[in-house]
Amino acid sequence: MDKIQDKRAEHIVLATHQGLKYPESLPLTWGAKDPMKRGAVVASQTNPRARNAIGSHSGSYAVFRALSIASGQYAPNHRPDLNNTFSPVKIGPYESWFDETKMVSIDPWGLDPQNNFQELFEKGYDIRPSIAVTQAHLQIPEIHEAIRAGRMKPDGKVVLDNMDIKVTKVAIEPVWFLPGMAKRLNIDEGSLRRILFTESGGMYPELITRPDLKVWLPPIGSTTVYIFGNAQDLAKPEVELTCRVHDECNGSDVFGSDICTCRPYLMYGIEHAAQTAQKGGVGIIAYYRKEGRALGEVTKFLVYNARKRQVGGDSAATYFKRTECVAGVEDARFQEFMPDILHFFGIKKIHNLHSMSNMKHDAITSSGIEVVNRISIPDSLIPKDAQVEMEAKKAAGYFTKDEVKKGEALEKVKGRDIE
Ligand SMILES: [Zn+2]
Questions:
Q1: pLDDT at 392
Q2: Centroid of ligand 1 to alpha carbon of 364 (angstroms)
Q3: Average pLDDT for residues 78-91, to the nearest whole number?
Q4: What is the band of 141 on the pLDDT scale with cuts at 50, 70, 90?
Q5: What is the pTM of this model?
Q6: How far is the CA of 260 from the centre of ligand 1 (A)?
Q7: Is the pLDDT of residue 4 over 50?
Q8: In this structure, which residues have their CB less than 5 angstroms from ion ligand 1?
Q9: Active-site residues: which are they?
Q10: What CA–CA distances, in Å, run from 207 to 55, 199, 228?
Q11: Which of 71, 190, 279, 405 is surrounded by the fewest CB atoms within 10 Å?
């Protein structure tokens, strides 16, 4: 008898159905101005009856949380104590938060939910933040070099006398409003849900069985934003704004690998963002976890080998073709949702956009943000082996003020062989 009871306690509902909608599960009205009318996204597992979203918090780290619970180290009923966790600076609300065409891949009210949904907390709802803000100092060798070379000067406010840069940093987890995402991708919601369900190996049956649940917290990486200067100035079009939208490249960003321009571009963006803040403007670096053009690092390293082993060696003329041969697509980043992060800060105008990518530029401008100047990286900051990538991108129509190489000249741009 005891055994049977144990089994019942472990009973799992494989796929919940619309008929299982509980009164505790709050409705969500995406885009509503009043947070209480919009409703809180509830994705925690401590009370499954109150859930009104598919998936779980912490993006890909939800899987590690599960392992931690499995090993007995983490209590599954733990509720975070949010005392003193609130943002040190005020961000929003901005008009863009109420526009369901601008805000579909993050939840702006996920910042300090304990303030936005106090009444619901008092009723016992377990609402988790999906956005957090804090402050920090950055110590970056390239910035120290820029100061020594006289390109930058400590001012005691943005750049301190010991060469630290003061920043506000923001972590943003993905919260996807599926009808809005389908609309932006120009497909119907049902097709989007079916493809997400199938391609994740059937990991989220509610994508199919619960069409009434419109929000999904996907198991993917978050976005980190670094702000130089006053965060509220980001929403003021009259204040000069320098922006880099950067897609993660661990090899270059962290380890200094010389095959691409990612770290030099990131550091140049930080230098300019800090300089703009020193002049009374504001800078923002948005760092998206989309490793290897969102194809992943395994694919990326395979492509590096294929590029270097091909007949004639690594060449700018065949740069994109190699990626497509291995991955099936040149680029899987889909910049369509990238500007949501910028709209979270109320950005309307970018005076200096650090990016060569037309996809990024077009996604930003077509979301209603004005771009004044586009900035490409100075040649002196490009590693020799990265010339292949740089020239291939220019030839493919990426933004540059330089001459674009074609034909034989492009074929002559070569990288190192496998050593
Ligand atoms: Zn890179």
A1: 80
A2: 22
A3: 96
A4: very high
A5: 0.90
A6: 5
A7: no
A8: 249, 252, 260, 262
A9: 331, 333
A10: 9, 12, 39
A11: 71
